[in-house]
Amino acid sequence: MGTNSFLKVLPEMVTFMRVAELGSFSAAADLLGMTPSAASRQVKRLEKEIGVQLLQRTTRQLRLTEPGAEAFARCRELVLAAQGTMDIAQQFSKKPSGLVRISAPKAFARRVLHPHILDFLQRYPEVDVQLIVQDRDIDPIREGVDLVVRLTTEPPEGLVARQLMPVAHILCASPRYLAQGDAIEHPRDLLAHSCLSLGEHERDNHWRFKQGEEEAEVAVRGRYVSNHSEVRLEAALVGLGVACVPVFIAQQALKDGSVVRVLADWEFQGNYHGHAWILYPPSRFTVPKCRVLIDHLLDALATGRKKKKLSASSARPAPPRAGS
User: Fold this and answer.
1) Among 55, 101, 258, 320, which one is most buried in terms of CB atoms within 10 A?
2) Lowest mean pLDDT: which of 180-184, 197-201, 247-251?
3) Residue range 2-11, pLDDT digits in tens
4) Chain-centre distance of CA 4, in angstroms?
């Protein structure tokens, strides 16, 4: 293919990449601001220019052919290179400026990120931030987002992954609820209680625990099921039962005594745990506006963890003096 031919099909390459990512001409057309028929014509023109079939089209789905998979990888590199070209001015600027788009799950965005972003905006007046609150997984390259926060045990390949903080789940309930029922001293005691679980998957009501060498699993049930952690906490606050929630969600309620921790001497091994990761394409860290926000969040959350450890250690009773 000559240089002129290559330049002629650059838009077609971008369209093909979006179609392959989304698995749909309609979805790609919506993203690119064109009709599905126009997107289909562009992919056909690219196939004709290259001389191979890139997509297998059926009534139900689209599949990449073997050469299509190779072309998709090359087109993705092309978009990354174009994005890097657009950021050249920022890379050579000493002063961070411009807009950073960052996405995060709803509860984590509100309870953890938001306060630190407010502080960041005070420190860097030339940088603007758009916080995109979404519980679904976002592809930063496909959706034009600079940084993505994801809660997972295994960050995806192809992106730089920096660990922000561990995400542990605990059980909690209101003192009023606990005063009305049987004591909860062992996981099996939960069978006599209303337990507020996620309900997204079949085993979300199977709660697993570990204490030393002992392990336990209990199939719980409750009056209210919700896949939103703040909803489960609010249900616990009004006395509807024992809720499983991330520590960062329950932190303030535990501090003011609105809820108390249940089975604190057992490790709750829920289906959702791991770490919060900040993800981004490798090229984004070279852009000052992104680099300073990444570093700010890493430093802020690391400092927060150190403070918690110090306050926990200072709260422990001092060991008795010799002879006392």
Assistant:
1) 55
2) 197-201
3) 556 667 788 8
4) 42
Is residue 241 within 8 A of residue 221, CB to CB? The reply is no
Question: Domain coordinates of the chain in residue numbers?
Answer: 3-86, 95-165+274-306, 169-268
CA-to-CA distance for 99 and 128, rounded, in angstroms?
5
Fold of 169-268: D-Maltodextrin-Binding Protein; domain 2 (3.40.190)
pLDDT attached to residue 320: 38
Separation CA 298–CA 221 (nearest Å): 38
DSSP-derived pairing of the beta strands 195-196 and 242-246: parallel
For residues 146-172, one letter each, b for 16 or more C-beta atoms within 10 angstroms of the residue's C-beta and e for the rest, the string is bbbbbbbeebeeebbbbebbebebbbb
Per-residue pLDDT tens over the stretch 95-115: 899 999 999 998 899 999 999
How far out from the chain centre does Cα 20 lie? 23
- 3-class SS letters over the chain: CCHHHHHHCHHHHHHHHHHHHHCCHHHHHHHHCCCHHHHHHHHHHHHHHHCCCCEEECCCCEEECHHHHHHHHHHHHHHHHHHHHHCHHHHCCCCCCEEEEEEECHHHHHHHHHHHHHHHHHHCCCEEEEEEECCCCCCHHHHCCCEEEEEECCCCCCCEEEEEEEECEEEEECHHHHHHCCCCCCHHHHHHCCEECCCCCHHHHEEEEEECCEEEEEECCCCCCCCCHHHHHHHHHCCCCEEEEEHHHHHHHHHHCCCEEECCCCEECCCCCEEEEEEECHHHHHCHHHHHHHHHHHHHHHHHHHHHHHHHHHHCCCCCCCCC
Domain 3-86, CATH number (from 2.40.50.140, 2.40.10.340, 2.30.110.10, 1.10.10.10):
1.10.10.10
> Tokens for 58?
């059926």
Confirm whether pTM is higher than 0.70. Answer: no
| Six-digit token string for 14 | 């971008």
CATH topology of 95-165+274-306 equal to that of 169-268?
yes
Q: 61 with 23: CB under 8 angstroms? A: yes
